Structures are given as structure tokens and as C-alpha cells.
Amino acid sequence: MNIKQIVTVHHLQELYKKGSFGIEKEGLRTTREGDLALSPHPALFGSRKHHPYIQTDFSESQLELVTPPQNTLKEQYKWLEALHDVVNRTIDTEEFVWPFSMPSRLPDEKNIPIIKVEDRKEIEYREQLAEKYGKKKQMISGVHYNFSFSSDFMDALASIAETPEKLTSWSNDLYLKMSRNYLRYQWILTYLFGASPVSDDTFSSEDSRQYYRSIRNSPLGYHNSFTNKVSYQAIEEYVRDIEHLVEEGTLIEEREYYGSARLRGKGKAVRNLISSGTRYVEFRSFDLNPFSRLGFSYEQSLFTHLFLMTMVWMDKDSTTEDVKTGAEMNEQTAMEDPFESSRFKEEGQFLLNMMKETINALHLSSEYDAVLETAHTLLDHPEQTLSARIVKELENGRSFIEYGINLGQQYKEVSFEKPFLVKGFTEMEMSTQLLLFDALKLGLETELLDSHDQFLKLTHGDKTEYVRNGNMTSKDTYISHWIMANKTVTKKILKNYGYRVPHGEEFASIEDAVNAYALFDRKAIVVKPKSTNYGLGISIFKHPASYEAYSEAVRLAFEEDGQILVEDYIEGTEYRFVVIDDKVEAVMLRQPANVTGDGRQTIEQLIQKKNTHPYRGTNHRAPLEKIKMGELERLMLKEQGYTFDSIPAEGERVLLRENSNISTGGDSIDMTDDMDESYKKLAVEMAKALEVKVTGLDLIIPDIDRPSTKDKPGYVVIEANFNPAMHMHAFVQKGKGRNLARKVIDMLFPSIDLS
């Protein structure tokens, strides 16, 4: 099979350069002092029996992050970013993930904990590994780069191959050639990306003054000594050789084969490769990059993708002897001094030139040119390679352990800079990010169906649920959302059930609403759009409004909707009750947007200062919205005799809005534990009356210390909200944050196994 010819003749270049990408990244949980963390795998990650993304490898202390396959490297790195945020925020506050391949400070070998799982066979397998290789070598961590060509490309090959058997043969030949040439030329990846020049004394008694390019890839690392006994010339030979190594007792199990290129098929048995073909290849020779917060940079992945495409595109095909030569060259490269030029530099230049030909033939993006140019520079300047850079840092007086502590803690802190966001998906609405975070932490299989529409697919076992905007689920009906979106319909339903609602009028035109001013000129009123959320277009007049102010409020409301409501203003304090699955999970007091004077700064300056709080942002990407300085705020100030240039007295509180929505700049105060149970019971009953499982009910309550009774109701319900924002409850300005995203997951998957 000549893949280059097939691609060229059938014009498949665009499909050939696509792929499916995944990364498995290992890392040791480490204490602040630089010691291996001996604590159990965090229970907050849920059960390892089903967790697809966060696992343990050999030891309880050795995390393994597994990204789901993605069709682009950019998408794959979004998931890698997100998983790092999940891990950093979930592991113990006194622990971090070690940034190097070579371990942190290790205890005596007998004290290194093997994984603790229910499956005794898994434990026994690792006990045999410990006996065979020693526990300390098991603690060497790295990156596995998983790659396959895209399903579109394989479908195109299928149409050319004509029969399934021929396609299976082509698939195996394709990935075998890639693997053969990878093993022959992998030394250049070790030269460029080798990043384990030293180890701590607790790992090895080797002379600490000796530096290497990559201890992990050297004979001092963790390898099978029999990998050269596995042939990559034909799939039958590859399968036969691995099975034979198991039969003769050289391998404990098939999975113990640690070749730098490991073919993966359907299921775990290697024999399935013959009947079902190779699905992807796992490339295992990469050190952790301590200069990348994620352990393997996007640029490294780009270069590796280009390298793999070239390994198939090139005319050269490696023999068994070539593969053995490649293994020797890789070991020699790993043992080199990081500051020395590669003894294979000439071949390296040849390889990079060949990769340039691949770029040109496939019309790859400029990103690939950039990483190739960097590789040329590193080939000429070994002192700029990763290992050399590490050694420079260590020669400046820092120990290996001190340097690891510094980097590891620094990378963990990045995940806490904005703990209400999930890196990789920060463009999404925040409640969806919170749900995504908990889904990944608990091990729900998660698929992002549409980031613009905030659509997630969550799967656990044989059950699948679809969620939009964080809490719009199958538990609520299509009509229930429309009921809550329409404030008039909501009021009528609740009123029919005997609940107290404000009196009001509905208008479909500005003219009709303005002409009705006489109905409200002596009343405290609220003017608001009929169907919008987030508090947009709402004006509140605690005292009778002037004709001009009323007319302006009407105009602003109609900007948000084709119909508006003018309702009686209800004296009291507004509280948001969030009901999820027939239970009040959060109650919040939302103070309207405000500033407090200091006698020196203008209102505009006070707003700008308050908006610098790290919890404040825009477009629902932060727990609190920034206070705006628009027409509604100007109108509100005018009613109080202020402008944005006014300087309020010290301690004087100035309102910028009457409505208390967080989405219009309000402050958040959690009141869940302070709210009388009678009001919580009412909120649950109202949700049932509306036949909804998730809603945000807004109640006006003059005195929360006085229980509401049938004879003396202490509330008025002003509206019900579908898709209530969850982020403002998770990160509050005052009080206890409430994780509502987790409550949504519990509602959807009540039987999820967290043990």
C-alpha cells in the first residue's frame, strides 16, 4: 500500500491532514515540602471504576489525566486545560501535581502505595510490576500521545478499498509504517523534547553531577528490555510476538508491552487488531515538559502531528534492523549531555527538511512552519533545548526538589486565579462551565455538542442526558419553559393556585402604555418587559413617578420585548429561591447595584473601583456582573438628585438600579440557612404548581423572621425564572457558596457511583 500515491491520485490531502488526537498525562501528587503524597486518591473524583478522564496509574499517588479524542489539536487542548483545572481545584490544598517526569522526593520503596481498587486482579498486576521493575521506576511519569487519522479519511479509504477486509489491511499497514518509521527516527523527539536531565537522590544513587537529555528514555528509565522482540513488519507478527512473550512468561500481561509505539484496536486483546484493524497508535516516549503548565505544550503536539504525518508520507520505510538501529540511536540521544550537539545532527536536518516537504505537499498552516523553524533552531543550539534549560535553572543554585515545588505550586495557583471559570471553555456561559467542571470531576462521559448554544451530552453507564445552559434538562417540559418566560401566564397560574402575586396591567404598544399613565401616577410601580430574563429593561419606582420618568421607563422596557407589564411595587426585600428537584437548594438576597461614598471620589470613579473586584465580569462570565453606566443608571441617579459626576458623602449608599438582579450589577448575599422554612416550603409548592423541576422564584418578603401562614402570608411572588443562573450562588459576595451544578447532576443521575 503506497499511501502517498493513494492520497495524491484521489486528492485526499485535505482529509489526510486531519486527525483524532488524545493525550494521557501522568503526574505525581506531591506535598508542599516536595515529598510524594501518600494520601489516597481523592474520593471527590468519584469512582475509578467508570471515570474516563481522571485515573490512577501504578500508585495511589500517580494521577493520569486522559483527554477524550478530539478532531483538532485546539479542541484537544481545551479538554486538557479543563482537566488540569478540575484536578488542581480538587486535590488537597496542601498538594500539587509534580511537573517533572522524574519523581519528587520518594519514601522507602516499601512505603510507595500501590493503587487501592476493588478489582484484586488490578492490584496483583501492579504487585508483579513492583517485583519485576521496582516501585521507584514505576513512579517515572510521562505523556502518551494518541493519534489516528480522521474518520473522514478512513471512510474515503474504505470507498477506494471496496471491501472491509482490504480496508482493515490498509489500516494496519498505514499505522505499522507510521510506527516503524517513528521508532527509527524517534531520537529527534527525544533530542527536542527530552526533559528529564536529573533525578532526586531518593530515586537513584547515580552521580548527581551527571546530566542527561532524558533519563526516562535512557537505560536508566522504565522500559521493557525485550521491546526489540516485537516485529512491526506485519500485524500478524506484531500480535504473535506479544502473545508469545505472554505465553513464555516474559510479559505478565499483554498490556505490559511498553513499546514507544503501541497499536490500539477494538477492545483490550491485541489479537483484535487482526480482525478489526488498528484504531489508533499510542506513542509513549515523551517526557513531561516542566515549562508547560499542562506538561506538554500545544507546539509540541503540532510538531508531533507533523512528524507522524511525515513518517507515513515519506518514501522511506524502515526494516526490522532499522527499528533496532532507531532504538539504539534514541538511547544514545537520551544519554547525551544536554549542552552537546546531537551526534545525529545531519540526519536531524534531513528529517526536518522532509517535514518541510510534507508541509508544502499538504498545504499545512503557518503554525506548522513555526514549530519546524523552532526545531531547526534547537538542532543548532542544544543549549536552548528543554533539558539544557532545566540544567541552567538548577545550576543557578536551586535544587531539583525546590525547582519542582516552585513550578508545581505556581501552576496550581493559575487554576485558582478565576475559580469560577474552566480554562479551555471560558467562552461559554458560566453556569454551563460549572456543570462541565462537576461532570468532569465525577467522571460523567461529557460531550460538548454546541458551545455557542451551551449544549452538553452527559452519559453514565447506559443513561444519557442532554443539558442546555447548565440546568435546562429533560426533567422540565418544553411548555414549562414558555410558562416561566411569560410573566403574565406565570402570575395567572400561581394566582389560580392561591399564591399572592402583584396586580398589574399589560401593554403591547408604547403609546397605549404611556397613555395609561393616569392609572399609576399616584402609585409605586415596577415597569418591566413581559418575557425577558436577567433583569434587563426593568425600572422600579418606590414613589410615584413623573410622567417623563414613567415614559422613559416604558421606552426602555419595550427595547427588550414587544410587550411590557406595569405592576404594583411591593414593599419588602426580594429574595431568589432556587428549587431543584422539589427542594430549595439556595436562597439569595440580591442587593441592587450600588456604591458607597467616601467623600472624595465621584460616583463614576466609585463604580470603576468596584468593578475591579475579581468576581465581577461581563456577559455572565463571572459571578457578579460589572455595574454599568447606561440610561437606566443615569435615570436612577436623576431620581435621587445625582449624576455620575456627583461626590456622595462618606458612608452614603447610592443606588444605581432599583431591581436587584446580579446580572445588572447587584451584590450577592447567601441567605439559605437564614430563611424561615415556611418560605422554602412555599417555593417548592409553587414550583410544583408550575410543574417544573428547576426554577428560580423571586419572592418579596418584608420580614423573613416572621413565618408565612395561610392567614398571614408574608410574601408576594413576582416571577418564576427558567434557567436560573447558578454561578451567582456558587461564588457569593457574602455567605456560603452553593454548588447548584452538582445538584443538577444528582437530579439527572441519582444512582451515580461515587465510591
Automatic annotation (TrEMBL):
Cofactor: Mn(2+); Mg(2+)
Transmembrane spans: none
GO MF annotation list: ATP binding; glutamate-cysteine ligase activity; glutathione synthase activity; metal ion binding
Coiled coil: none
Enzyme class: ligase
EC number: 6.3.2.2, 6.3.2.3
Pathway named in the protein's UniProt entry: Sulfur metabolism; glutathione biosynthesis; glutathione from L-cysteine and L-glutamate: step 2/2; Sulfur metabolism; glutathione biosynthesis; glutathione from L-cysteine and L-glutamate: step 1/2
Chain intervals for the UniProt region annotation (Glutamate--cysteine ligase): 1-334
Oligomer and partners: Monomer.
Function: Synthesizes glutathione from L-glutamate and L-cysteine via gamma-L-glutamyl-L-cysteine.
Listed name of the protein: Glutathione biosynthesis bifunctional protein GshAB
Protein source organism: Alkalibacterium thalassium
Gene name of the encoded protein: gshAB
